[in-house]
């Protein structure tokens, strides 16, 4: 499996999903998404403000709002090299245009505005279905890199890379580097999303990056949830690989509000916490890690629970959590620990996962109900990044990808 495959699947879902939703008002979209009474539309925050979002439709020449209410802008002002190209009328904005870099430069950068020490998510998408073979390198802040490979005419699913990071200065660099004379790097879209620096993903403050992220929304009938339901525009998927196919989970959901109020809390959207999978009395559930795109890496893992089953008002639900076969938390009792309809989170930030790793939720022998799970987040965690160093021209420091520099400008 390639490192991008789960997000690619997700983007394909998104493409399939949008045409149906586009024709509906935002209010109707919510009804379709969660099957709620009309009155609830009043309570769902439909802010279109997108504070701090930067959404760049590379190669585009127009500014427009998409069906999620996100405002996309051309790349003018964010990068100074490359050429526009709109190769693919078969896909929709923002992926139908791109910027490509045929010049003999070893590196082409986009410069995004940032506030030092604030946390951000950066999302980069590539789609170039009907042109040359291409292979090049993506770098973020000269700390994180990935090799991007495209084969001509073979690709209709975008490759998407996300990184969560703390800005070290007032800019974030996203660069594309060519590896051979014939490579033509390109980019389809680039998104910057501010996170809540005081509460979310506090591990980022130590200079670690989180990438290859996966956000699972258990028990939901909605394939994909993102902005505006998640104000941070994370992408929550309901097709969750790795769950033991023999387990007899029951999807449950509630229209009651679920309180998400913790300090150091990753702010899982309420709509995600309002659905869960639950398991019968006495049953354990195992999620294997064979689906991960990256093995033998350190992971940051967050489990999110909220008791949303009315049954739990009169019956106990107590379970333990094991990672890689080792119990890491005993006697989790969400209704007792937090109260009904209150979110709770358990996170672990240095778990080495390989292809045979597992997470297991096991009911205590005395528990009257089996385990429950509302959401799960997984990220690969880098070592703390060294401070960015500035060569004299202020450009980011040496490339991480193996570069065969042809000629410098
Ligand atoms: C996009 O939406 C914003 C907020 O509603 C609005 O102010 C702006 O005019 C819209 N832009 C376009 C290009 O439609
Ligand atoms: C693209 O790569 C494939 C697989 O390596 C190769 O068969 C094909 O000839 C290449 N096409 C071009 C235009 O280079
Ligand atoms: C990219 O590919 C080159 C050449 O195969 C390799 O040396 C380098 O480690 C790769 N970089 C990443 C980040 O995978
Ligand atoms: C909530 O549960 C009902 C009944 O099982 C189901 O029809 C509906 O799709 C679920 N809603 C969500 C958002 O999963
Ligand atoms: C599911 O059950 C079948 C039949 O009992 C068994 O062969 C298989 O190994 C089980 N799968 C898992 C992942 O436990
Ligand atoms: C995976 O990691 C576990 C410990 O976390 C170890 O016991 C096991 O041997 C590893 N398996 C592989 C295939 O590396
Ligand atoms: C990075 O810079 C900060 C502030 O200048 C300093 O406190 C810290 O020790 C540096 N970290 C490394 C790894 O050099």
From TrEMBL:
<keyword id="KW-0812">Transmembrane</keyword>
<dbReference type="Pfam" id="PF12819">
    <property type="entry name" value="Malectin_like"/>
</dbReference>
<dbReference type="InterPro" id="IPR024788">
    <property type="entry name" value="Malectin-like_Carb-bd_dom"/>
</dbReference>
<feature type="transmembrane region" description="Helical">
    <location>
        <begin position="27"/>
        <end position="46"/>
    </location>
</feature>
<feature type="domain" description="Malectin-like">
    <location>
        <begin position="56"/>
        <end position="379"/>
    </location>
</feature>
<keyword id="KW-0472">Membrane</keyword>
<protein>
    <recommendedName>
        <fullName>Malectin-like domain-containing protein</fullName>
    </recommendedName>
</protein>
<keyword id="KW-1133">Transmembrane helix</keyword>
């Amino acid at each position: 499996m390639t490192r991008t495959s789960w997000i690619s699947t997700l983007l394909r879902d998104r493409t399939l999903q949008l045409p149906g939703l586009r024709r509906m008002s935002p209010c109707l979209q919510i009804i379709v998404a969660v099957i709620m009474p009309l009155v609830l539309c009043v309570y769902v925050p439909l802010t279109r403000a997108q504070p701090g979002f930067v959404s760049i439709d590379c190669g585009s020449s127009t500014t427009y709002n998409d069906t999620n209410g996100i405002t996309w802008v051309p790349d003018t002002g964010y990068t100074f090299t490359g050429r526009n190209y709109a190769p693919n009328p078969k896909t929709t904005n923002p992926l139908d245009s791109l910027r490509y870099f045929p010049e003999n430069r070893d590196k082409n950068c986009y410069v995004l505005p940032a506030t030092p020490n604030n946390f951000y998510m950066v999302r980069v998408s590539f789609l170039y279905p009907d042109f040359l073979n291409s292979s090049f390198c993506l770098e973020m802040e000269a700390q994180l890199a990935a090799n991007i490979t495209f084969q001509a005419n073979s690709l209709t699913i975008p490759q998407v890379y996300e990184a969560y990071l703390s800005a070290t200065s007032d800019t974030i660099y996203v660069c594309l580097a060519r590896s051979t004379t014939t490579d033509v790097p390109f980019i389809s879209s680039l998104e910057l999303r501010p996170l809540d620096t005081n509460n979310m993903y506090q591990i980022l403050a130590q200079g670690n990056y989180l990438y290859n992220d996966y956000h699972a929304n258990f028990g939901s009938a909605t394939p994909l949830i993102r902005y505006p339901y998640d104000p941070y525009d994370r992408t929550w998927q309901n097709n969750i690989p790795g769950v033991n196919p023999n387990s007899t989970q029951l999807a449950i959901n509630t229209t009651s509000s679920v309180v998400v109020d913790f300090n150091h809390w990753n702010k899982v959207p309420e709509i995600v916490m309002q659905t869960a999978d639950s398991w019968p009395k006495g049953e354990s559930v195992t999620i294997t890690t064979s689906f991960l795109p990256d093995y033998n890496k350190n992971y940051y893992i967050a489990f999110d629970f909220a008791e949303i089953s009315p049954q739990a008002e009169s019956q106990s639900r107590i379970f333990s959590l094991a990672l890689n076969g080792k119990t890491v938390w005993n006697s989790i009792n969400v209704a007792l620990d937090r109260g009904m309809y209150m979110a709770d989170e358990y996170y672990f930030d240095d778990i080495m996962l390989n292809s045979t790793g597992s997470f297991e939720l096991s009911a205590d022998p005395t528990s009257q109900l089996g385990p429950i799970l509302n959401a799960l987040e997984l990220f690969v965690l880098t070592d703390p990044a060294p401070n960015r160093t500035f060569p004299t021209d202020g450009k980011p420091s040496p490339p991480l990808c193996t570069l065969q520099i042809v000629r410098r400008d």
